[in-house]
Amino acid sequence: MKTKKIIVLTLALILCFSLLAACGQKPATAEPAKPEAEKVVITIGASVTPHAEILEVIKPILEEKGYILDIKEFTDYVLPNTTLDEGDLDANFFQHTPYLELFNKEHGTKIVAVKIVHYEPMGIFPGKTKSLADLKDGAKIAIPNDGSNEARALLLLEKEGLIKLKEGADFNATKLDIVENPKNLDIIEMAAEQIALSLPDVDLGVINGNYALQAGLNAGKDALSTESSDSKAAQTYGNVLAVREGDEESEKTLALIEALNDPAVKKFIDETYEGAVVFMG
What we know:
By secondary structure, this protein is an alpha/beta fold.
């Protein structure tokens, strides 16, 4: 009996000490979460439509990879380049290569195109005159006044037989290169962003795709004539992502290029613009 009592007492003491030891242990705590790594900000300048709208599509794509895309909207064709050249932007997205090359030449900037993203067909839009067939002698036609877009507009007018340019003028054409003007058209040069607003005052306006969209016009639906998507103009005037010379292979540039190649970008362009903007990634 004594032996059994000793064994029971010993077991009880062991159990008691075990419980006390367990009570004295500190509860396990989860390792504190590491603070989220600071995201890299990419600042990019863009025209409002369609460029800034397209960039909104890649915001979440870039965020998943650790970048915050800060989109600065511009309503002209000068400030996006001067601001980039001065270092206040990492990139811009609003222009085609001929305009960029001319801008560099005239302003001494060193900006380079790193990717063609899309093409915006330029169109002839009705103003006071609603069809090309109704165009009267001396009719007024507004075209962009910057070199590359002026040539593009003149080539489109030539395509419709409204004027004839001297041989070889091509994408360097100006009003001085018009050798035939059977209807004595009054071709008025003005800032590209003003043409859509001036349609009530002219017979026709030749408008860049982005400014047409901003004015609620669609080259695929509203224009009397447009550049074809398989034309030389389409290849020449594709809208580009541009950066300062020397930043072509930077981390930010490569991240932007990769994001703009995402299938979501093509899907958005196709579904949103219905031919007024054509994806070229």
